[in-house]
Each structure stands twice: as C-alpha cells, then as structure tokens.
Design goal:
177 residues; alpha+beta; Alpha-Beta Plaits; 2 domains; 5 strands; Ribosomal_uL10-like_sf; ribosomal protein; structural constituent of ribosome
Length: 177
C-alpha cells in the first residue's frame, strides 16, 4: 500500500469516526471467509458498517481527530482488527452475541474495545454490559411509561367508582299517564 492509499484509508476512517458516536473494535482472526461474509451480511442488514483496516492507520485517524479522547482505545489496536460503526450503542454487541450463539464453537468476533457516546469499554468481558445499554428510543419509552402510570391509576380509580355508583342506583321507569 503506497502513501496515497494509506492517506485515503485514514481520511475514510476519520469520516466514519466523525459520523458515528459508537464504534466497536473487534478481533475477527480465525474466522473463516464464509463466517466473515455472514457477519458482514448481518451487519449490513442491521445498519452497522463493518470495516477492516490496519491498526496503525486506525490509530493515526483517531489521533488526528482527538488524541486524548481516544487514549483508552489505542491498547486494543493489535492483531486483526475489524471496526463496527453504528448509530445504535448496542446493535454491534447484539450482533456479536448472536453470531457467537449461532456458531457455538467460535469465540469470535472478540470485543477488544468499544466507544459508546463518550465512554470507552475495553475487553471482551464488557460485551454483556454493552448488550444491556438502552437506546435513546428505549429510554424515551421508559420515561413516557413512568409519566403515564399515575394518570392511568387515577383514571382506573375514577372508572371503578363510576361503575360502583352506577350499579347501586336503580333507574326508575317513567310513570304511565
């Protein structure tokens, strides 16, 4: 790879890191070509971009954007590296977990690090925590549910009271003239 090609890859990576608030650094070493193609297909279906790049180019792209912000990521840049970019903070974690369950004998892709929002998660042990992260829409749904709960209880109480009062009162028929 010549210098111009390397610069092109760095620029592409910089644009991806700027575009997405969430990215995962994974190790896909020892996966077969068929498994990698399957993983790419699943990523595509779930709107997760998967890119493979050299660790030095990834590091240069991150350093040129904000060297201090990504300090905790640099140690994860070793071996074979595949990047997963997503708008969702947990979609890549779900993909990795599901892929491992499908391919029971495979412990890969292995999570090396994840950058979610402004938080850095390092190590494969963090995968379980990343799967549990709530998306913005899930949080909004939880808040709406909490706000609606007291109103629902008040309405249910009023309806119950109205039913009791309606059942206790007898309706008089009009007198015949």
């Amino acid at each position: 790879m010549n210098k111009d090609q390397k610069n092109d890859v760095i620029e592409l990576l910089k644009s991806k890191f700027s575009q997405y608030n969430n990215f995962y650094i994974t190790n896909t070493e020892s996966l077969t070509v068929a498994q990698v193609n399957n993983l790419r297909r699943v990523c595509f279906d779930k709107n997760v971009e998967m890119k493979v790049a050299k660790n030095t180019l990834i590091r240069k792209a991150l350093e040129s954007l904000d060297a201090e912000k990504y300090t905790g990521i640099y140690d994860a840049l070793n071996g074979v590296t595949a990047l997963m970019f997503s708008d969702s903070p947990k979609e890549p974690a779900l993909i990795i977990s599901a892929f491992r369950k499908e391919n029971k004998k495979v412990e890969k892709p292995e999570l090396k690090a994840a950058f979610v929002g402004d938080e850095i998660y390092t190590g494969d042990a963090q995968l379980a925590n990343l799967v549990k992260i709530k998306t913005k829409n899930e949080l909004i749904g939880d808040v709406i549910g909490l706000l609606q709960s007291p109103a629902k209880r008040v309405l249910a109480g009023l309806l119950e009271k109205a039913k009791k009062e309606g059942a206790g009162a007898e309706v008089e028929a009009p007198a015949a003239e």
